[in-house]
Amino acid sequence: MKFKQHNAQNQRIEHITSNHIVVGIDIAKETQVARAVTYRGIELGRPCSFKNNDVGFKKILTWINSLQKQHN
């Protein structure tokens, strides 16, 4: 059975549980800013600013791993 795109997206959203951390990233030309929230939309920690390069990607991964350890 085929689903329309919004149905597929809704199905993915329904699979988000209290064990998940949702990360949103505001993409800009030089510096990106990430925020993390619980499945209920409660913000976790402080926003993380990072550059669009290898060092920046390592920083965001470290930040996400730190949040996972703190909140799971």
Walkthrough of the structure:
- The chain has 72 residues and is of the alpha+beta class.
- The chain has one domain (5-71).
- 39% of the residues lie in helices and 29% in strands.
- The chain has 2 helices and 3 strands; from the N terminus they run H-E-E-E-H.
- It has helices spanning 5-14, 54-71, and strands spanning 22-26, 31-37, 43-51.
- A 3-stranded antiparallel sheet has the order 1-2-3, with helices on one face.
- The termini are far apart.
Summarize the structure.
This protein has 72 residues and is of the alpha+beta class.
Question: What characteristics describe this protein?
Answer:
2 helices, 72 residues, single chain, alpha+beta, three-stranded antiparallel sheet
Give the SSE layout.
Layout: H1 5-14, E1 22-26, E2 31-37, E3 43-51, H2 54-71
Antiparallel strand pairs: 1-2, 2-3
Main β-sheet: number of strands, strand sense, barrel status? 3 strands, antiparallel
Structural class call reads alpha+beta
Radius of gyration: 15 Å
Note the gap between the termini. Answer: 35 Å
Global morphology: globular
How many distinct helices?
2
Number of domains: 1
Poorly predicted ranges: none
